[in-house]
Amino acid sequence: MRISNLFSLLILSFFLVSCNGQSTKNDISAFALLGSLGAPADPLLENKFESLQSTTYYRKDGNFQFQDIVLQYKLKTAKEDSETIEAYMGNPNEITFNSKTGIVSGQITQMEDSFKTNYIVFSYSDYTKIFKFIITLKKDGKIISNREVTSTPPTVPAIPPNAITLPNISYETVRSIFYSDGVPTEYQIIRVKFQAGSDLSAYKKLDAYLGRPTKISLAADNYNVINYIKVSFYDKYAGYFYFITPEVNSAYKIIVVGSTDDAKGNRSIDTVPPPPPASPCLGSVNAPATIGNCASHCLVVDLVGNQMEYIAKTSVGTTTEEYLYLDSTSSTVGGGIGPVGMAYIEHFSPIGIGAYQTDPKSFDVTAYNNACVVLSSYLQQEGPTGIRDNYITGKVNVP
Predict the structure, then answer these.
(1) What range does the record give for the signal peptide (predicted)?
(2) Cβ pair 187, 234 in contact under 8 A
(3) pLDDT level of residue 335 (50, 70, 90 thresholds)
(4) Which residues, 6 or more positions from 292, have their beta carbon under 8 angstroms from its beta carbon?
(5) Count of CB atoms situated within 10 Å of the CB of 116
(6) Which has the closest alpha carbon to 152: 60, 53, 16?
(7) Which candidate, 338, 392, 394, 333, places its Cα nearest to that of 361?
(8) 286, pLDDT greater than 90
(9) Considering only CA atoms, which of 254, 234, 258 is closest in space to residue 245?
(10) 26 pLDDT higher than 60
């Protein structure tokens, strides 16, 4: 794999943290310098490394400038399960390795190739410094082979002038619920789009930055963004920038920057959070109330002190009915078990003319935690003309 392609993958998978807490996915220059191929292995150790090279990239994050150094290595034989690759970074005149003791000293930091990618990435906030790296192969925690390489600082790429106007942008935002181990969490999802039909083929860079309206801003070069929270890269296949945040009620400012080979530009937009979802008790009525038509089938709800009581009722107008069933049930708006169990009546022929009702059901509203209760009733009759049924339901506010 060419080293430029390699680093494109690296910036998507590594968490190189900058001074304002952002990933190195931000503002990576494509410019790279190759270091030396690595000093020979220590003669007292095994020579397990076939090659080692360093590549340095310049990165500007807001007003801060970084260098990202990629160490790419090859082994002569496949690494065993008990073997690990670790690299150490230090100043050239300070970092050392003692082959007799097997100890690296004077390092600034160290990293391991935990995912067996054959490369290790370091980042430093001073892009002008030169570093020495010692890469080691450890077996059962003991160094059995090593190589050294010295990096070369990157060249700062030129920032193109403000000479283009980005297409207009718009956004849409919605609330969405995601589940983790069965636990729901609500998020705000924001999609930022360019004006329909915009030609984006000439743009080499298109990034969107999300931040607090009073904090986020463009740097003095009108290209880099400072004090942002998140960055998103333009998905040309989906056709938008994508942000997800647990702050469902927050408003944001989004700054979009783009550049071609010889020019740059930017756009910004302020967002409004999505409206809260409709109350699950929307449409509820207050007791006393009647749900349905008692001439045929209804629920009668009453409130006496702290007790909410309800009854299902129906009327029979002929003596030809052969079967009658009527019930009343309660549930929560989410479909859970209600505060009271089901009540029902069932009659077989002969069934006389008159009013029929279920036993009254009641519950203490002070012991019920939901803002409303769902009451329902099912009626079934059977006679000479066949089976007839009816279902009614309604929501009642619980004070």
Answers:
(1) 1-19
(2) no
(3) confident
(4) 298, 299, 377, 392
(5) 8
(6) 53
(7) 338
(8) yes
(9) 254
(10) no
Give the single-character DSSP code of 162: B
38: pLDDT confidence band, cut at 50, 70 and 90? low
For residue range 204-232, list pLDDT tens digits in order.
889 999 999 999 999 888 888 989 999 89
pLDDT-based confidence at residue 276 (cuts at 50, 70, 90):
confident
* CA distances, 47 to each of 70, 83, 144, 240 (Å): 21, 14, 8, 49
Which tokens go with 341?
């169990």
- Four-point Cα dihedral 136, 139, 143, 149, nearest 10: -10
Is the separation of the CB atoms in 333 and 372 below 8 Å? yes
Within its chain, how far is the Cα of 35 from the centroid? 38
Mean pLDDT of the chain, nearest integer: 87
Q: How buried is 43 (Cβ within 10 angstroms: 0-12 exposed, 13-18 middle, 19+ buried)? A: exposed
Q: Is the dihedral of CA 330, 331, 337, 338 positive or negative?
A: negative
How many distinct helices (H) and strands (E) make up the chain? 1, 28
**Number of residues that this document lists for the chain:** 399
Q: Which residue has 């996915």 as its token pair?
A: 25
**17 vs 124: CA distance, rounded Å:** 10
Those residues with Cβ within 8 angstroms of residue 235's Cβ, 6 or more apart along the chain or in another chain: 241, 242
The number of angstroms, rounded, from the C-alpha of 75 to the middle of its chain's C-alpha atoms is 37
The Cα–Cα gap between 341 and 1 comes to: 68
Six-digit token pair at 194? 């360019």
Q: How far apart are CA 312 and CA 291, in angstroms?
A: 9
Residue 20: which pLDDT band, with cuts at 50, 70 and 90? very low
Question: When comparing pLDDT for 376 and 28, which is higher?
Answer: 376
Phi, psi (degrees; rounded to nearest 5) at 63: -90, 0
